């Protein structure tokens, strides 16, 4: 009885929100900080356990086999970012500023291409431009040999066409809320045309451009599936981390840990550099005078409209390719000129469990993300303190941690008692929740900042307790936006490959893993069928997201 009353006094003293903060901190420490710091500690192990050593880091920067992969990663990511900006900025500007017809359709095409995983794009380009690809064979008929899709050039092609929509969507959104009075003032001073764009328009939306560029850089730097499929001899850092860890009997888990730390440092450095560069200048605009849509003359109108849809179709070509090839009959690894649904029947009989697991794990993870996200965002916004600021920082840190690294830190931490989770569905759900929860928290805090405190204050003034006010008013007002963010996280989760490749077992394989293994086994028909199922789920989820947000939501 005394113990119970003492516990009650502690609870009353801390309060409900104090318990929420402690609980979220405990979960973050157990499932994020403990695994992360465990991996960092392991990276400093020597030849004998518990002996501090820099041997792994010295070997990495001393041996060409290791440090060359870092050079490769930076080369691919930097050039991908450059090409994505060169393609995404003009494309976004054209669609935002000119009377291009069917903008909603155009944007939908770009968004759908954005939300599918890069490795599906890699598979599609193999089908089109691989050694036995459709386009490759067509060109051979007229004695034209094209460069191989494998290696450095293939990675650049796939990443650029896959990731430029990030820049496009950011730029288009920024230009739609641009204050036209600034451009008018420049024109009054004699600055017009290209000079106006380079000196006024683009510099003012520089934060938006760099935000998209950073996402492109970090995504291409962290991606595992694409270089595994088409990288071949051009090995990048995530692939080497994967090989070192998954081949632990013959590999080196300490080196894998050290390389994981290096990847995190690289992505974090790029993010901090972007924020430091942007933070030194002011870019504020009122946005009360948006620029008018300019009507193009017939010639430019035809050219820019054709160009815009051509870019969108090329971006969407992986989804188009997978859908078409999923209905083409196969004989082993070879497509034959006949249509068939055999690939889908094979998937249904052989891999239906992978489909069920994918949607089940992603849905459970989405529920956890929504619940944790609602409570976390509330204490961050409404209960501001140094403690909640630290909590915000900790939960946002997975934003800069690649999926393969999330997988490695979790399996290192939970592959022995008392937390034996390796190979179970639980560890996959935990990894999905950790990896995607930053997006839920950001969408939830954004909603809370928009909600006026007066509704909560009025409820409390009428005698409704603060806790009951939260559940009856605040949470209800937040829910549509939070669910919308949850749907986007769900879309990203069903397409997740990097962390799943580390964590899955024979009993927990998902669609993305099945696609990868089918491609490796030359099962291109079943891979296409599985990829088409993912695309259909993505499109339906995107439709639901637009219904919930009434077309005003953002996928970025």
Description:
- By secondary structure, the chain is an all-alpha fold.
- It has 2 domains: 20-53 and 328-556, MetI-like fold (Orthogonal Bundle), CATH 1.10.3720.10; 54-120 and 146-325, MetI-like (MetI-like fold).
- It has helices at residues 2-14, 16-43, 55-62, 64-97, 103-115, 118-129, 134-140, 152-176, 180-188, 193-204, 206-222, 225-230, 237-246, 253-279, 298-325, 342-350, 352-382, 386-396, 403-413, 425-450, 453-461, 466-494, 498-503, 511-520, 524-549, and strands at residues 328-331, 334-339, 415-416, 419-420.
- The strands form 2 sheets. It has a two-stranded antiparallel sheet with strand order 1-2. It has a two-stranded antiparallel sheet with strand order 3-4.
- It is globular, with a radius of gyration of 25 Å.
- The chain starts with a helix and ends in a 7-residue tail after the last helix.
- The relative contact order is 0.12.
Helix count, DSSP H or I runs of 4 or more residues: 25
Order of helices and strands: HHHHHHHHHHHHHHHEEHHHHEEHHHHHH
How do the strands of the widest beta sheet line up side by side? 1-2
Please, how many domains?
2
- CATH third-tier fold name of the largest domain: MetI-like fold
Reported CATH architecture of the largest domain: Orthogonal Bundle
Which CATH C-level class of the largest domain is it?
Mainly Alpha
Euclidean distance between termini CA atoms: 53 Å
The beta-strand count equals 4
Structural class: mainly alpha
CATH superfamily of the largest domain: MetI-like
Give the radius of gyration: 25 Å
Largest sheet: 2 strands, antiparallel
What are the segments in which pLDDT stays under 50 over at least 5 consecutive residues? Answer: none
Envelope shape: globular
- Report the helical percentage: over 70%
Tell me the β content.
Answer: under 5%
Mean pLDDT rating = 82
């Amino acid at each position: 009885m005394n113990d119970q009353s003492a516990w009650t006094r502690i609870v009353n003293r801390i309060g409900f929100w104090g318990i929420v903060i402690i609980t979220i901190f405990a979960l973050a420490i157990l499932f994020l900080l403990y695994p992360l710091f465990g991996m960092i500690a392991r990276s400093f192990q020597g030849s004998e356990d518990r002996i501090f050593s820099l041997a792994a880091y010295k070997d990495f920067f001393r041996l060409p086999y290791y440090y060359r992969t870092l050079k490769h990663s930076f080369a691919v990511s930097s050039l991908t970012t450059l090409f994505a900006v060169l393609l995404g900025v003009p494309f976004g500007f054209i669609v935002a500023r000119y009377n291009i017809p069917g903008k909603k359709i155009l944007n939908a095409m770009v968004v759908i291409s954005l939300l599918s995983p890069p490795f599906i794009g890699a598979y599609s380009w193999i089908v089109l431009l691989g050694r036995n690809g459709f386009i490759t064979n067509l060109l051979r008929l007229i004695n034209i040999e094209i460069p191989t899709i494998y290696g450095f050039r293939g990675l650049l092609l796939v990443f650029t066409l896959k990731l430029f929509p990030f820049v496009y969507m950011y730029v288009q959104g920024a230009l739609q809320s641009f204050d036209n009075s600034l451009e008018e003032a420049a024109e009054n001073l004699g600055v017009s045309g290209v000079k106006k764009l380079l000196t006024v328009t683009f510099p003012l939306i520089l934060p938006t451009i760099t935000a998209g560029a950073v996402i492109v850089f970090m995504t291409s730097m962290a991606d595992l599936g694409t270089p595994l499929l088409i990288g071949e001899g051009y090995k990048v850092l995530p692939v080497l981390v994967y090989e070192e860890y998954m081949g632990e009997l013959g590999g080196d888990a300490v080196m894998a840990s050290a390389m994981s730390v290096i990847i995190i440092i690289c992505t974090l450095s790029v993010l901090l550099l972007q924020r430091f560069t942007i933070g030194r200048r002011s870019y504020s605009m009122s946005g009360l005078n948006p620029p008018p849509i300019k009507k193009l003359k017939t010639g430019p109108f035809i050219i820019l409209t054709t160009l815009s849809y051509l870019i969108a179709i090329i971006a969407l070509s992986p989804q188009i390719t997978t859908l078409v090839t999923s209905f083409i009959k196969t004989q082993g690894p070879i497509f034959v000129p006949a249509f068939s649904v055999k690939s889908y029947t094979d998937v249904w009989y052989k891999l239906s469990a992978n489909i069920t697991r994918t949607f089940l794990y992603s849905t459970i993870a989405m529920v956890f993300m929504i619940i944790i996200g609602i409570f976390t965002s509330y204490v961050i916004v409404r209960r501001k303190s140094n403690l909640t600021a630290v909590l915000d920082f900790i939960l946002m840190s997975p934003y800069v941690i690649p999926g393969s690294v999330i997988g490695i830190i979790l399996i290192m931490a939970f592959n022995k008692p008392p937390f034996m989770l390796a190979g179970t569905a639980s560890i996959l759900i935990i990894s999905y929740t950790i990896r995607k929860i930053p997006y839920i928290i950001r969408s939830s805090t954004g909603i809370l900042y928009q909600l006026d405190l007066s509704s909560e204050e009025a409820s409390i003034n009428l005698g409704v307790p603060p806790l009951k006010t939260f559940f009856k008013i605040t949470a209800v007002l937040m829910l549509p936006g939070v669910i919308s963010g949850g749907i986007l996280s769900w879309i990203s989760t069903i397409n997740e490959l990097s962390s799943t490749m580390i964590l899955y077992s024979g009993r927990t394989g998902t669609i993305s893993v099945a696609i990868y293994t089918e491609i490796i086994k030359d099962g291109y028909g079943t891979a296409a069928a599985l990829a088409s199922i993912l695309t259909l789920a993505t499109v339906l989820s995107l439709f639901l997201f637009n219904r919930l947000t009434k077309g005003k939501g953002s996928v970025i």
